[in-house]
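Next comes a single protein record:
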Amino acid sequence: MKTNKRSITTFDKKIILLCGIALFSLWTGCSDSFLETKPKAALLTPSLQSYAGASSLLTAAYSLLDGWATAEGAYRSYQVGADNWVYGSVASDDAYKGTIAGDQPPISLIEQANIAPDNIYFRGKWRGMYDGIARCNDLLQLLPQITANITEDQRTQLVAEARFLRGHYHFELKKMFDMVPYIDETIYDPNDLESTKVPNNEDIWPHIEEDLLAAYNVLPTTQRQRGRATKWAAAAMLAKAYMFQEKYPEARVLLEAIVASNQYDLVPRFHDNFRAATNNNIESIFEVQYSVNDGAPAGENGNIGSTLNYPYGGGGVTTCCGFFQPSQNLVNAFKTGPDGLPLLDTFNDEDVKNDQGIEATGEFTPYTGTLDPRLDWTVGRRGIPYLDWGVHPGKTYVRDQAYAGPYSPKKHVMYRSDVGTNTFVGNPRLNANNYRMIRYAHVLLWLAEIAVRQADLETARDYVNEVRARAADPDGWVKNADGTPAANYLINEYTDPWTDADMALKAVQFEQRLEFAMEGHRRFDLVRWGIAAETLNAYYEVEGTKRAYLNGVRFVPNKHEYFPIPLQEILNTQVNGETTLTQNQNY
């Protein structure tokens, strides 16, 4: 289902109109009957008491997947983007904030592990997810009131989709902040503003599981409208929740059911997961829908959360804004050895050659060593074609090389051929390139991870090789204008049997990084694997010699695994002078 905020805007205007009428009647009434008037929130429900009305509320709940419409400051869209580029990538070893030092300083603080409860970005994410939860609860409270103009099958599916979304929004909060309150329709009272001021003193994983399992048991395997949750989307989301809790047998059952459904497969070309022309392809299990030129004001249905993350200038893609630059560490991870396999332990010993400090008019020859071809669909680097925009020119595409390095982001960027059709006419950075939140490659690599945990190393190797075989197909490589490979690509499958469980786990985790780089998953994966401190502190130690602002940065164990509960939200939960939310440890 398209995230159609135009209809939501119309719906919101309708609410405002109804409230205005209600207030006008109170002011002008000539009898005491106004004393019996129901609260404003209840006045709205008669207009919604139909399948069409309930569906509009479901659309509103879907719309918060990309966070837009959250009322938290001028930068709310960047705080709540579906791809978690700040929290999952910039806060990891995948990416720098980019641009210049003084732009969006709250992101700089997160990047530098200077993580504090008053950072406005944390509050934006918090409010965006709870806004989504509130919209789910609105629908779940409304449905029992609808007695006509709806079938039981329709009612059941609406409940299932609302619970899927509510499970997702709580999942986002859980992996960000850990101890967060679970709010369902039995807790939320629209006529009592104090009703959601509940303590965060219990683990909400069981509630998330309940919501996602309820959705899995009801939802159909396919949906007529793309973007709506299916049985398999719920299965994958629930399996992911199990992975975060190390419930590997439970996750395996669900993931194997997805494989056995024969409904999904890897697309033949890796980069077809990152272009608007191939949205909703056979690899996509759950995808956040973006659209442009659909009547929504300011193109806000496009991928507005990533609107900063484009090459800065140079007469090419855009003139703004230079954020979200890949790290040198990430680029180095794509190096391969003579056998075409990753350098699991030594990848960062020597840098892939770059054009740091070289003017665009100066001579530069790109790195000639062997590389995984997925690098050049993930990172823009000088001398390599940048989608269909021509060869990346280097420094002119970067706002401040000295500050944030020489690389550009790539996966979410529109093609030149998309401009005017899959881009908003008023701002081409707002485009219709959907965010693939869960794709079939996730399923395969989660199964590989589980197989290693269960000492089934050869099964793990098979799953990893399935992903690598797609990457090794030359048809999917970046090519020069003459059709030759753009770099010295060398990638092979693992042919030797896996006998060392530690090496196998490292190989699976490394593959997940390569496959999903710059997609907002990295920090959360490091935390759930229990290797965040060792990995990120090793990263800071080396990167601090390249980026001055990372010098001396440290990941603090038993603190930085989760971000702090936003200070303002703690203050807002006061009841009788006492707060109901408790801050995470060591903040």
User: Anything to note?
Assistant: The CA atoms of residues 252 and 447 lie 6 Å apart. The longest strand covers residues 284-288. The mean pLDDT is 91. Strands lie at 95-98, 284-288, 323-326, 379-380, 408-409, 423-424, 427-431, 435-439.
